[in-house]
Amino acid sequence: MFRKILIIYLFLLIVNFAVYSSPLKSKESLVYRLTIKGPIVPIYYDYLKDGIEAAINNNAECVLIIIDTPGGLLETTREIIQLFLNSRIPIITYISPSGSHAASAGVFIVYASDIAAMAKATNIGSASPVNLGSTEMSETMKNKISNDIIALLQTVARQNNRNDSIVIDFIEKSVNLDEQKAKELNVINYIVENTEELLKKLNNQKISKNSIDYVLNTEAAKVIDYKMSISKKILFLISNPNITYILMILGIWALIYEFSSPGFGFAGATGVVCLVIAFFGFQALPIKAAGAILLIVGLIFLILEFFLATAGIVGIIGLISFILGSFMLIDDVMFKISLPIIIATAVFTFLYMVFVIGAILKARHSKPVIGSEYLKDEIAVVRKKLEPEGLVFVEGELWTARAVNEETIEENEKVKICEVKGLKLIVKKI
Question: Domain 26-228 in CATH: superfamily?
């Protein structure tokens, strides 16, 4: 009996050893997918950085970035390039879906990736300094910036084994390439229909990056969509120049209303919140100091119009300054504030100042209309002879009245109210 038990025990031990000593099934391979859609603003750097770190922490095979962008800020683009080149995980870019493009800053981001792909009916190109920076620059400055970004893009191209000669045409001639031409000229590596096809092509792909050799295992990889956090989505939303501009104007309107009326309430709190949010939005935009100054000066002049007798001259100057400041506020062709929004805002600001704030200021400087104090200096008519007391009729009411000098005042005579004492009026004959 003991022998049988021993044999069974040894058998189970051998089976257990065989199972647990054999190589474990490899962990499920992961691919982190991030999305760039719209202008390249600073929040995208934070989003990409967080996504890459999450992929590294979860031992992902690579990071796949879906791109559809008209370009963006040069400084942010430089930061993203550094992020890609120094990452400890392969970076794959994919211009998708059909109809998408990677223009301006998008070209730099694609070139900085280890492997690049495009969907059908997409394009890449137009990386001139006009699209990457200021719309107002001298020829000398434009050439300086062009040479700088050409050198940068060519360096990145050589590092990732891409065509570096076409870079000059991208920047100096604003050349655009469709997916077929981009593949032919070695700007990208693959043309694929979708992510699944791309992952199949990436499978067993060897990548050398920062002295580390990677072999991708992506054919059956699980794709993790790394979403932008709610806070970052809000920051991205307010980095839209039109939204930021509207928030700023709403904040200014609310504070002007609050300062024009007694106390501090809902309007003041709303104004502060709007301006704080707008401030964060403007940090992500290329703000021009001259535009901001003109905008502030315009608003000041519009306010002064209600305190100075200028027959509207100061108000008109303020309105012109406001409009010019709005046009000059953001010095980038990609982040310009919409013309209809500027015009509509200027008109509504003027009307707001005239009708709303004007009414408030008028009310503040008018005589009181509650209680009895408003009766002072009014004209009343005697209804009962004053000897020296009697009755007078004023504002549709009968009041007890007393003559100032104890004089007698006959019925139907007019008197001026000198003082209100409780329920009695002190009057004098006109």
Answer: 2-enoyl-CoA Hydratase; Chain A, domain 1 (3.90.226.10)
